[in-house]
Amino acid sequence: MVSVHTVIDRRDGAQQAAEGVARSDAQATNSAANRKLYKSRVPIYPREQDGLYRKIKWAMMAVTLSIYYLVPWVRWDRGPHAPNQAVLVDFAHERFYFFFIEIWPQEVYYITGLLILSAVSLFLINALFGRLWCGYSCPQTVWTDLFIWVETKIEGDRNARMKLAKAPWTAGKIAKRVSKHTIWLLFAVATGGAWVFYYNDAPTLLHELVTGTASVGNYAFIGILTFTTYTLGGMMREQVCTYMCPWPRIQAAMTDKEALCVTYAYDRGEPRGPHRKGDPWEGRGSCIDCNQCVAACPMGIDIRDGAQLECINCGLCIDACDDVMAKIGQPPRLIAYDTDANIHRRLVGKKPRFRFVRPRTILYAAVLGIVGAIMVYAFATRKSVEMDVLRDRNPNYVTLADGAVRNGYTIKLLNQANMPRDFQLSVGGLKTREVKVIGLESDAMPAVLHVDADKVRTVRVLVTVDKADLGTGGSRDINFTVTEPVHQESRQIESVFITGGAK
Question: Would 434 be classed as within a structural domain?
Fold first, then answer.
């Protein structure tokens, strides 16, 4: 059996030779005669692959597509004054509903928190398992897999599709292409149609779309999303991940040699080369250079070249390689979810290990926990009543004939509950002669303000203070308190009362 150092030397020599060829090719390409500003896309025809990771991808596709298409149809009873769609972005009434959660425009910090949690979760997953999101859950990956599946069922597997692409246009070829693109468009229309259901009551909108009475905006958004889904999932595919998505560039800073990624075990596979049945395995690696890993890759890369920007860690090359290893009688997982650090450990005779607890994973987990705790606390202490107090600035105050001073305030009271409620408004902080709520017949305090469910009520309040109670200085502190006695909720807002410099 060849020694570890011999394997390394041969691999380094092969790599240097390959780099020399690459430099020569690059020089030829960059010559004045051959220089091009744009290279046309080389179509990729991934081979239909079966195996563990392919089954996981099918399962993830079924789950994610089911969630996407079915969630707008889930109902959630919020009472008679609110919509019963479980997930709804209601722009008309400025609400976001998510099952039992209702978010108002002034609570956008909840959305910010969710975005932070999503980003940090992605960082943590990448540090632990590489681009797992890209390979299994990313919408681009899911819809591309779906479109390739349709293409395979109509045009055949890899070799048949490549042969068809080179074949002249015949009635059979036209029929296959038209069938494929028609089904692609149907999936794309369904994608755009499902998206607008998240912004409208789904059953109502479906009826409007079918009868042609839906708004122009809904039809426009369906058209835009149909175009983007058809183009990105059917036509551009891997180019979206390679050139349009920023995550491949960012993830390089989020990972390290201890991250569990799809990895080629060159310590075991090299030196590679063809192998015939009955030939000895001494002096060579397990890789027979069959290129089945390349044929199965939806990105068209060779994982044996090491970690690459294009790799989405989908694991299909693992399934392809395991099939070959079984046929030639070699152990599986020549390509596997492993770490670069483990390969180096094996090269020097050390036992492989997986270090999931590392400084960067601890940091990401800590940030995730802190932000999550803040979100839970904010939601747990959230009140269903909000109040804003705006003091009149023009004029700042009014001096009455007897020397008393009057200030005006605009109070906005928000009832975030799904039922109408009565709130008691009171004024404190200084002695007042009169508190007048414009529109109420009685001046008795506390004043009772009725607010409908999910509504804002705006009232004008005039506060008058006798000259003897104004004190010194140009202003006095004042506070406004609203209380909802049934649910024992209250809000208090501090403001100022301008005295006009009374002494």
Answer: yes
